Amino acid sequence: MSHPLFERHKALLDQALAAIAGRGYWSAFPESPSPRVYGEGAAEAGKAAFDALLNKPFPLTLPGAAGSVGGEVSPYGMQLGVTYPKVDIDALFAAVEKAEAAWRKAGPEAWVGVSLEILTRINKRSFEIAHAVMHTTGQAFVMSFQAGCPHAQDRALEAIAYAWDQLSRIPSKAFWEKPQGKNEPLKMEKHYRVVPRGVALVIGCNTFPTWNGYPGMFASLATGNAVVVKVAHDAGDDTAQKLALRPEVRIIDFTGSTANGEWLEKNARQAQVYTEKAGVNQIVVDSVEDMKSVARNVAFSLALYTGQMCTAPQNIYVPRGGIEAAEGHLSFDQVAQAIAEGVQKLVGDPARAVEILGAVVNDGVAQRIDAARALGPIVLDSQTIAHPQYPKARVRTPLIVKLDAKDDSKYLKEWFGPIAFVIATDSTAHSLDIARSAVVKHGALTLSVYSTDPKIIESAIAVAEDSGVALSINLTGGVFVNQSAAFSDFHGTGAIPLRTRH
Amino acid sequence: MSHPLFERHKALLDQALAAIAGRGYWSAFPESPSPRVYGEGAAEAGKAAFDALLNKPFPLTLPGAAGSVGGEVSPYGMQLGVTYPKVDIDALFAAVEKAEAAWRKAGPEAWVGVSLEILTRINKRSFEIAHAVMHTTGQAFVMSFQAGCPHAQDRALEAIAYAWDQLSRIPSKAFWEKPQGKNEPLKMEKHYRVVPRGVALVIGCNTFPTWNGYPGMFASLATGNAVVVKVAHDAGDDTAQKLALRPEVRIIDFTGSTANGEWLEKNARQAQVYTEKAGVNQIVVDSVEDMKSVARNVAFSLALYTGQMCTAPQNIYVPRGGIEAAEGHLSFDQVAQAIAEGVQKLVGDPARAVEILGAVVNDGVAQRIDAARALGPIVLDSQTIAHPQYPKARVRTPLIVKLDAKDDSKYLKEWFGPIAFVIATDSTAHSLDIARSAVVKHGALTLSVYSTDPKIIESAIAVAEDSGVALSINLTGGVFVNQSAAFSDFHGTGAIPLRTRH
After folding, report:
1. Please, are residues A121 and A340 in contact by the beta-carbon 8 Å criterion?
2. H-state helical runs in A138-208
3. Which pLDDT score, from 0 to 100, does residue B497 have?
4. Which pLDDT does position B203 carry in this prediction?
5. Do A23 and B171 touch (CB under 8 A)?
6. I need a labelling partner for A353 at 20 to 30 A (CA). Which of A361, A364, B478, B488 fits?
């Protein structure tokens, strides 16, 4: 007898399964915040629901709650005034133990059915969640809505579909009958049960709380595990470490700094630890058809959400002797200048710029921009922009600095934020060598190449395969290297030893 | 264009895929060493091929070979006189690097096709390999043939089928077309390539070199990795550690001691480490229909290959107040005695006994039997049996010692070999509590329960699920707890944190 929630969402699940098999474009949750899609008044109701959360305790009942924590300030400048319950970890895990007993036994159809039901209910609250994402991450509203809601929900559905795809391969029962020549066959009735691992801990990041948090969370739920999302705590205390070392915790999904990720990998040995840590994303420019369209595409990737994306490019390698373009030879400085102009055009109009840039998530980003200014000659300086709607918002445009290949101590680490380096190399072969080594040693989520030469493209593919990074080739249109499409792209690979350890 | 070896073995692969989906009985490689199956003269030719290997260097060309190692003595008493090349590890890995480049790029159909071709060629040499297994492990010939050849080959095929099942889910190409309202859709052509992890190191065990070694080896080959099987080396040197810490090694499949397994887990951080370490397998006796058939079944599991199996039971829990049987109440001592009698019947006739017991793999087993004798009252002493064909063979029968539940420092560790404890507990509930805790703390591959009470069966199922061990219920016929059937049983689970870490 199938679980009713499984039946309710079976058609959605089947579509998702077909999508992950075909990997063409598909989306379950519409990305348009239009009233024609989400209904008249949905936007206003969502905004009102978000506003109603401000300046009071967040309505969340947690076992073992004692006291509260708060003090969040929106990257757009306003005090949120929300407080969250502070929990006693022992009491929390005692409650988890009680709750998980029945959940663990409920079985694959219940796990998947309930997960899908949660997801469709979350989708209905997309506007409310979009405002929450906006005012905690600093993303512009449309991005908060799209990346934080339908795209994140698509990624959750993708995780559930992968889970079901594996769960459904284990029959619940089998009859085993082994012939014995002239004698009676040996007969066995066998039962198989998928046993969840244990408690899954999700430690998200402050830039993409839902987009980065949902996949691990729903993968664990859909396979029958209880999930603990890292609870609110005072800055700098050891709540995350305490949670991670609980013996009940058997899965950890982490997004954040390399130092914290490596600490988990080394110390949380009782758990299967998945980490997404820092990395160095790179663009290799070899030759182009049209420099302007390349610059436009790269500029958008540098500016989108102020470069505060794990997929945003940082290092742009250009041969010091320049490159060939359809318009003729371009010197290294001409290439750097073209990219700078692309950025300037994109962020020249403040009203339009803030819808791309959003706001800076924390002071660390602004400090990093200041520090990066001293690294080399500035091709394009970072500007502070006044936000038309939010005067106290921290809005910054990208900084582009010129470096030489030998400055590897400067560019071979992550400068999280709107910081890009145009780096002079001996040749494209040199660029690719640096890129390969950077991925292996420092991790990366994206590599991008621009070339009109099929041999260079082949070399770039070999580098991507060797080092284990996703490669984009000649992106000049409306698709950007820092976007990752659910059901189609693989966001991150398990191939980079220092980055992702399973 | 499909790879010709993939096409050649496609039907076999399809059968294996159907078998792992249905999990009923299936075998690709016949377990009967009959001439009707393997051909007239196959047995004789295999024996001759094995004999031709003796007393000379093993015909194996290895890069970086310098000098040789040898000195193996068969558990049946004879000097094998075989020497193996000793390799320089740097030279070996330099050769691997060259060889793996083309292999990594060959793609899923080539990886799987070549793996299946290797396997079918191995099958044709089963008799030769059976003799090699016999004279390195001490298994009796029929077991060496069955477990070491067709069953091991089935397990290899199972691993290849799992690999293909996952590989085939990734399309090589997709067209991604995202609608843009009234505008032209965004279009992308996407290519996906499965990138192997790197070099896979297989560290097998001296009791089941092929049965335990093939699954990891073929799983790695079928996914495009190069495989290094731990090379021959002088006893006690650090070859295994040196191999395990090579940065090229990205997968390790290990079977062996807990100390060595934990060393790998802790130190070989660059690799995905799969370990099968020591454990404590257990039988819970609650109530029986027919004590004789229970005793016969348990006795066979204790005696088979002198208990030198990772699945062989060690601890047999019986309530100190005795149990109910169809024949009436049986005291604790009557139960212990019945099992002892079962063993005695099985090994009473030396000619028949040696075909079940085989020989003791090394002196450690014999020393362990001597040490275990001192642990408590002996229910059945271990005997030395003269082997009719091999006068110098080390043949030992099972030892059964009586213990009390409070003697946990004695029985809560692995006593590898033909050593069993009948342990008096307060009740079956107490037995199950001990069993649960033993699995979680010390690892286990098998748990077996005998009960006529459906509630006790339910409790045993709950213990097995909680602790993550495979459970056998009321085995009294020709199926034994220490046997694991390819395509149907799951040998080992990932659920025991201290035992298996992924």
Report:
1. no
2. 141-148, 150-167
3. 54
4. 97
5. yes
6. A364
Identify the three-state secondary structure at position B168.
coil
- Residue in B186, B465, B502 nearest the CB of A193: B465
Helices marked H in B189-245: 209-222, 239-244
CA distance A69 to A57: 9
Residue of A32, A103, A176, A498 to mutate, interface with B, max B Cβ within 10 Å: A176
Return the pLDDT at B492: 87
Rounded to a whole number of angstroms, the distance from the CA of B495 to the nearest CA of chain A is: 6
Helix (H) or strand (E) holding A185, with range, is strand A183-191
Do the beta carbons of residue A224 and residue A231 sit within 8 Å?
no
CA distance A251 to chain B (A): 11
Q: How many CB atoms lie within 10 A of CB A152?
A: 27
CA distance A226 to A247: 14
Q: Cα–Cα distance between B13 and B116 in angstroms, integer?
A: 8
Q: Choose the closest CB to A272 out of B190, B477, B502.
A: B502
Q: How many Cα atoms within 13 Å fall on the side-chain side of residue A375?
A: 29
* Paired residues of B216 in beta bridges: none
Q: How many residues does chain A have?
A: 502
Nearest CA among A219, A256, A261, A259 for reference residue A244: A261
State in Å, rounded, how far the first CA of chain A is from the last one.
Answer: 35
- Report yes or no: B290 and B418 within 8 Å, Cβ to Cβ: no
The CA–CA distances, whole Å, from B239 to B203, B208, B225, B351, B386 equal 11, 21, 21, 40, 37
DSSP conformational letter for B231: P
Dist. CA A472–CA A460, nearest whole Å: 10
- ipTM of the complex in this document: 0.94
Do residues A395 and A382 make contact, with C-beta atoms less than 8 angstroms apart?
A: no
List, in order, residues 6 or more apart from A134 with CB less than 8 Å away: A74, A76, A140, A141, A144, A148, A358
**Mean pLDDT in chain B?**
95
Upper half-sphere CA count for residue A183 (Cβ side, 13 Å):
8
Contact flag B493-A195 (C-beta cutoff 8 Å) = yes
Of residues A273, A112, A126, A272, the one with CA closest to residue A210: A126
> In this structure, how many other beta carbons lie within 10 angstroms of the beta carbon of residue A180?
10
Contacts of A155 (CB under 8 A, 6+ apart): A211, A214, A215, A486, A491
Helices within A285-444 (DSSP H only): 291-303, 332-347, 350-357, 363-373, 408-411, 428-442
Q: Which two tokens stand for residue B470?
A: 């495979």
Nearest to B21 among A169, A179, A190 (CB): A169
pLDDT in tens, A226-272: 999 999 998 889 999 999 999 999 999 999 999 999 999 999 999 99
Please name the residues in contact with B296: beta carbons below 8 A apart, sequence gap of 6 or more: B342, B345, B346, B476
Residue A439 to residue A497: CA distance in whole angstroms: 10
* Banded model confidence at residue A494, pLDDT cuts 50, 70, 90: confident
Q: What is the pLDDT of residues B247-273, one digit of tens each?
A: 999 999 999 999 999 999 999 999 999
* pLDDT at residue B450 is higher than 70: yes
Query: Global pTM?
Result: 0.96
Q: Pick the closest to residue B439 from B239, B321, B279 (CA basis).
A: B279
| Number of other CB atoms surrounding residue B172 within 10 Å | 11
Q: Residue A89 carries which DSSP code? A: H
Which DSSP string corresponds to B397-456? --EEEEEETT-HHHHSS---SSEEEEEEES-HHHHHHHHHHHHHHH--SEEEEE-S-HHH
- Cα(B59)–Cα(B308) distance, integer angstroms: 30
How high is the pLDDT of residue B235?
A: 86
Name the closest residue on chain A to residue B18, using Cα atoms: A169
Distance CA A423, CA A431 (A): 9
